[in-house]
Write a structure and sequence with these properties.
- The chain is an all-alpha fold.
- About 70% of the residues lie in helices and about 0% in strands.
- Strands 1-2 form a two-stranded antiparallel sheet.
- A hairpin with a 2-residue loop joins β1 and β2.
- The chain is globular, with a radius of gyration of 19 Å.
């Protein structure tokens, strides 16, 4: 029992760390595209849910607090996505006749599938730190908090969207290996879970925004 509990805790820790990495990487992407180029939504469900959750709950607070807020919505959206798939599986007969998979393992496997979008994060941070005189950690922080500007390269959005498609393909593979769906059901289950995810993100975002409203400057 103790070993199983430790294993679940490790899985939760690794999954949440990966989701934070996704928030870090996409934070740079949307910060860069904020300066003159339109950023595209990523094709996997959990970044879209994170955007919904963020914009439904974000308040007019200091940029530093908004940055922390941005990072926190990604582990939360990752948990919601795993929950949506796990919760709806029996209703779509997505895992007959075996029981539903362990939630912590499903959560971790979905987080690992986001790796293609996570990998560019450190590269983006180094790009933001680059100045005419060399590397500047202070300039990187200024760009992150939008106190300074950075002209995004033209290849940035196509790169991230391509990596998002790779993550989506990985996630579909995780879905098939985890649930072993019956013929005709997988896409219905997947899309119904995505709809549930967005609804949960809207409701939770609105609730969090309402709860935080008294703290707004």
């Amino acid at each position: 029992m103790k070993k199983a509990t430790t294993e679940r805790l490790v899985q939760w820790f690794l999954a949440c760390t990966l989701w934070l990495g996704l928030g870090f990487s996409l934070g740079w992407y949307y910060t860069f595209t904020y300066y003159g180029r339109s950023g595209w939504p990523m094709p996997t469900p959990e970044p879209c849910a994170a955007l919904v959750l963020y914009y439904f709950s974000v308040l007019n607070l200091a940029t530093e607090i908004q940055a922390v807020h941005w990072m926190l919505v990604f582990p939360l959206s990752g948990v919601l996505w795993a929950f949506a798939l796990w919760f709806t599986a029996p209703r779509f007969r997505a895992a007959p006749p075996a029981p539903r998979p362990a939630f912590s393992r499903l959560h971790l496997h979905l987080a690992v599938a986001a790796l293609p979008m996570i990998v560019p994060g450190p590269v983006m941070a180094c790009m933001a730190a680059r100045t005419a005189t060399g590397f500047s950690f202070g300039h990187m922080i200024d760009v992150a908090l939008r106190h300074s500007t950075y002209a995004p390269p033209v290849w940035l959005t196509p790169l991230y969207f391509t990596l998002g498609l790779c993550a989506l393909a990985w996630q579909v593979r995780v879905y098939y290996r985890t649930f072993r769906p019956a013929p005709g059901n997988p896409w219905l289950h997947f899309f119904a879970s995505a709809i549930l995810l967005v609804l949960l993100a809207c409701l939770l975002g609105a609730a969090v925004g309402f709860a935080l409203a008294p703290w707004q400057a």
